[in-house]
Amino acid sequence: MLSKRLIACLDVRDGKLAKSVKFVDTKDIGDPVAKAREYYEDGLDELVFYDITASSDRRRIMLDVVEAVAAQVFIPLSVGGGVRSVADATDLRLAGAEKINVNTAAVERPALIAECADAIGNQNVVLSMDIRRVERCAALPSGYEIVIHGGRTPMNIDALAWALEGEHLGAGELVVNSIDADGTREGYEIELTRMLADAVRIPVIASGGAGTPAHLEEVLTDGHADAALIASMVHYGEYTVSGIKRYLHARGIKMRMSW
Amino acid sequence: MTTVIIDYDAGNLRSVQRACAEVGLEAVISADAAAVARAERVIFPGVGAAGSAMRSLKVRGLDRALESIYRAGTPLLGICLGLQISFDHSEENDTTTLGLLPGRVVRFRLDDPALKIPHMGWNEVRVVRAHPVLAGIRPGDEFYFVHAYYPVPADSRLVLAETEYEGTFACALGHRNYVATQFHPEKSGRVGLDLLARFAAWDGSWEHATC
Questions:
Q1: Domains parsed from chain A with CATH numbers
Q2: What's the predicted TM-score (pTM) here?
Q3: What is the pLDDT of residues A130-145, one digit of tens each?
Q4: How many A/B residue pairs have CB atoms within 8 Å?
């Protein structure tokens, strides 16, 4: 039986770790390569690097980080942030990323999903969606709206419709990131995660809001998520990867427990 | 002592190379059929679609190189798509494949709508037939999988290990000097690195258990 996955997300700015709270006030918290290695050795199932660098030489810096991590971390490595073309995706793949996350650029030009799927395979294209709760209306019947540019720009695009279109275009996996929950540490947005996980046939990674292991338990059971993404829970040493996995395992959730 | 990772435009060969390096197996990535034929150890990885993979192999003469090293007894490790196109036929793109191993490759037909395609993530590998490359895998050890198709060997004696995903499928197969895994040892943490280390030490000899 397939295990649920515990995924840690490392936001990287100028080659260093950062963690945002509601997408503002980012602060540095250390070396991404050392953190990646630490989590890997503690039983992490998958790593995501999100490049939030603003400078123009961002690509070289991020490729160096990915390359350094890939040389010593032997679990799936996923990278996103600023992927705008197949060339971006293939460069990151060559540096050692398994999966490529597309977000803003895919909303602006949906064909990017299909182009990346053709170039690197469906299973390696992750559609990452930043989503906020809204009043239901004709344009947003699910009551959830896609936002881009790191949560700043609402698009008047329905989140459920976009998830289905992303799957149809060839995305192999979805990241469902609730910007309402992100950084609050009050729990994942269960209703949103379940709605999307039930609507698509591809795996869904829940993101945004994790504060305690019980939040992960909730989203992996009631939320129907295939994987749960965490960040600040482990970055500041409050919880450990292995401790969270042991908790979930003890609660009857199938996790990989030997590493 | 050359180890060659076969390059046929099918996925992330450098991650295989890096994992090999981690266990002390220096491997070169090559698309040259002559280099493959000369190699003392060959890894046949791959991610992608069967149809285009077969075309790339044939254009480079790598299909014949694989046949010749297989006959010559060179230790050979197939991974994921490499395993799949080693059988006779794949449902993916309705492709006639290499035919090194008897059998076919079919797509998951999952009746349970809660099961996702591809089968992506960590799952238990249960060894059902002892093999030097799989020795050391313990009950409960999980490996990383990403695939929508799986092998159905014509001879059950090829099956070395099994995994559950709705039903049971063969996740590791072996015949003579060829061992192949549906999962990705290069992405499976320590248990995967250990498998690569055992492949690096394997002389390619193995006979079916008596059956």
A1: 5-250 (3.20.20.70)
A2: 0.94
A3: 999 999 999 999 999 9
A4: 91
